[in-house]
Amino acid sequence: MKVLQLIFSIFFLFSVPLNAQWTSFDLSNINTEEFEKQVAPLLKTTSILINRHFFNQINENGRFNLGVSYSQGISLTGESQSSELICGYPNVAGSVVITDNLLLKGNMSTFKSNNDIVQSFAYGFGLNLTNREKNNWRSSVLFSQLRGPDDIKIRSMDAAIINEFEVGKVSLFAGFGLNSYNAKILINTSDSIPRSIKDNANHLLFGAQLNTGRIIIVPILQVNFDVVIISIEISRAFK
After folding, report:
1. What residue numbers bound the domain in which 82 lies?
2. DSSP class of residue 4?
3. Total domains, the chain
4. CA 197, CA 211: separation in Å to the nearest integer?
5. What torsion do the CA atoms of 47, 48, 51, 57 make, to the nearest 10 degrees?
6. pTM of the model
7. Cβ(209)–Cβ(65) under 8 Å?
8. Reported confidence tier of residue 2, pLDDT bands at 50, 70, 90
């Protein structure tokens, strides 16, 4: 129980900082003439942020898993109006092992950013594509939604495949994610602002699994042409 309390303490510590440290969804200052171009980095970053896969080992000796994560997005496009809105994003996640190669998983987040109460949730499954001790292939599929902000709502899907390998004694993984989203724009200050934007945020991903006793720490890097996501996931399995 002490470890569980520690995990949730870390999550709530992430929620304490000032609102400006969290990703903002206030689109009122986006240039309406170039709205879709300017807002693209925010939409792609968010679509990846709300789909945290938590690539935990599928192990029937630890059927339940709880974890927290913190992610930071970085825009590579130079579209400053949208890039200034991209900051941190927290998540809390859980999963349950169903069989020796299948688990059900989900994650959620809620925080205050400016005047918005941001809420997101995702649900899906993880699957062992192979059952090797080394060079194992795994997949994860998540369906997610972002609600709460006055200016935007997002639905997205992210399907990722990774290969696990070792370098020395360090467990690493690499793979790719296929991400698609549909953003509903709720502001109507100009006819040039689209009512919805559909696009992809496909990305490469790289990570490491660091076991510290019962706790697993997973730093992850996700790279898209327009954005980069840096995340840290902390989790623990329970019987």
Report:
1. 2-238
2. H
3. 1
4. 40
5. 170
6. 0.86
7. no
8. very low
